[in-house]
Amino acid sequence: MTDDAPLIGVLAIQGGFEAHERVLRSLGVRVREVRIPADLDGIDGLVLPGGESTAIMLGIEREGLAEPLRRLARRDGQRSAGESAPVGGVPVLGSCAGLILLDRDHLGIVDMLAKRNAFGRQVASFEADLEIEGVGGGPLRGVFIRAPWVAEHGPDVEVLASVDGHPVAVRQGRVLAVAFHTELGHDHRLHQLFLTDVGAAHRGSRARD
Ligand code: GLN
Fold first, then answer.
1. Is 100 in the pocket of ligand 1 (CB under 6 A)?
2. Ligand 1 centre and the CA of 43: distance in Å?
3. How far is the CA of 86 from the centre of ligand 1 (A)?
4. How many whole angstroms separate alpha carbon 199 and alpha carbon 99?
């Protein structure tokens, strides 16, 4: 890992952030835990982990993180009044509770509505092999733990994978949201896909410097 390796922020309020950190480090990027707005300064990508979306959202609000997170992900990458550098367009990966946080009822970063615990009590947890658009090399094993699905989405949201006709992996611009966990196993292709976006954004911002 080098000092100019991309720096990835991992929201570390509650939930499974450490597993994401391990995967990211194994893929050669730098990692910073995000708890307060200042932790977002200079990051090249952001991971919103799984956990309990209600608890994480309360923490986001308590720390004043909601608006800075929206600004970071904003697609146009435009600067707000008083800001010297464009901060939008930072790639985001949200998994499970992280998908819920991205929806219209929470941070409003992705034009979608998530249904929480969508697979019901009987099948609270299961694993499935998923063919994901943009992830080559055969199906990816997804671990679903009291997982949501995408109940509704706008035209800018691309569905990358579904289970029983319900979207469980979506993309809007550089924001990827998946209903399942891949950080628990040894197949890191989803994080690699995210880091491909990060690499593109990172190179783009350097070219502007
Ligand atoms: N059921 C959780 C929620 O609604 C999400 C579960 C998870 O992140 N594994 O927030």
1. yes
2. 25
3. 32
4. 22
DSSP state of 92: E
Instruction: Report the C-alpha gap between 73 and 43 in whole angstroms.
Output: 11
Residue-wise pLDDT tens digits, 56-68: 999 999 999 999 9
Q: Is the CB of 132 under 6 A from ligand 1?
A: no
Q: Is 159 in the pocket of ligand 1 (CB under 6 A)?
A: no
Dist CA 122 CA 31 (whole Å): 36
Residue with tokens 């949200």: 94
The per-residue pLDDT for range 103-162, each reduced to its tens digit, is 999 999 999 999 999 998 656 799 999 999 999 999 999 999 999 999 999 999 999 999
Chain mean position to CA 167:
15
